[in-house]
Write a structure and sequence with these properties.
The chain has 162 residues and is an all-beta fold. The chain has no helices and ten strands. It has a ten-stranded antiparallel β-barrel with strand order 1-2-3-4-5-6-7-8-9-10. This is Peroxynitrite isomerase.
Length: 162
């Protein structure tokens, strides 16, 4: 089957398309700092949204995979005037709706809605930055959880591999 054309509405975020791999660092007031590996994939089916999947795993001091960490999936939906909506779901029982803005190759997102199942951990807000820097996808994530305000949690640098 032939690859569909990229929908014109995706132009502001088309730079995200592809598979990205790399590593980053994480931490939070309630956990020790850690190193992680990550794979992100942005795909499309010709409609005006990107499909998104992210997988992370804990890395040891030598950079070897130790165990799976977080997984999330969702949809990135460009809106008029370079606005964007992102819907993310997590297997831990959390769903987030982010709203934000695309400026050149930088995307800033803040949670508009966070919904949790009864068994999900307490999480109230997120702030994410994504940017293309020298061809690499850089991102940073702050979260508000466990009674803490928005606090740095994770960041990574990913290279395009496909």
């Amino acid at each position: 089957m032939e690859e569909p054309e990229v929908h014109p509405d995706l132009e502001p975020i088309a730079f995200l398309l592809g598979r990205w791999e790399g590593a980053g660092v994480g931490g939070y007031p309630t956990i020790e700092s850690f190193n992680f590996g990550q794979e992100i994939e942005f795909t499309h089916n010709g409609k005006p949204f990107l499909e998104y999947v992210s997988r992370t795993w804990l890395l040891d001091d030598d950079g070897n995979r130790v165990k799976p960490l977080a997984t999330e999936s969702g949809y990135w939906r460009p809106q008029p005037e370079r606005q964007i909506e992102v819907v993310l779901s997590h297997p831990t029982g959390i769903v987030e709706i982010y709203i934000g803005e695309v400026v050149f190759h930088k995307i800033e997102l803040r949670t508009d809605v966070v919904a949790r199942t009864a068994s999900a951990r307490e999480y109230t807000a997120g702030h994410r930055l994504y940017g293309l820097v020298n061809g690499n996808l850089m991102w940073a994530y702050e979260m508000a959880a466990g009674g803490h305000p928005l606090t740095d949690h994770m960041s990574a640098e990913l290279k395009k591999v496909a």
